[in-house]
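Hi V.,

You were right to ask for the full record rather than a summary. Here it is.
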Amino acid sequence: TVVMAHHKCAHVFLATAVVLVAGKFGQQRECRAVLDSGSQVNFISKRLANLLMLPAKKVSLPISGIGSTEARSTSYVEVSVQSRMSKYQLRLICYVLPNMVSDLAACAEPKDGWKIPNELLRSLADPQFYQRRGVDLLIGGDVFFDIIGSERKMIGTGPLSLQDSALGWIVTGELGVNCFLGTNSLGEDMESSWRTELVDDCANFGQTSKSNRKSLEEQEAVEHFMQNTIRDDEGRFA
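Predicted structure:
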């Protein structure tokens, strides 16, 4: 049971952008990315990495988050990312996670609109910045400030602003809205699912190679022999 409470709060817009990512055979696919200067590495969802069919390399990377929570990534891929607005592109080493973040919450459009100038609407980094949508890529601090530009424009909707970037104009700031708060934590639910999948990945780490499969089969055969055979008085196995 989830107890809901009506509350006046602020919707904070994260720095999101819709970018083009290239697959194994050069095919491009759109995905929503979050730009996070506080992350030391880049991340990609397992779902997107599988869709792109990118070759993954094994790794064991401990990840620490807010509240000293810890998890581990067991593989990484190299991703080619390109802006939809220009020829700007970069290659990123992205560590694979079962889930990136839960879908970013939607925010209702104000009665008087967003007041974004028409000439900038076509250049928004994330045209659906206010709509609920999943995130499959997190771009960290190593390239964050290379992407962010120097120009910033205030718009008429409260304290919102448009930040120039190589990926287009990014909507930033917060907007006062009516929202419902629940006693359960989406972050905790996501972390629980994330940890379960990571534990499975860690348990299977290295077990799929041909040599390791053979070693495991031999070990299982020895254990079966020890559990199901006995030696009689004459030294024979029965």
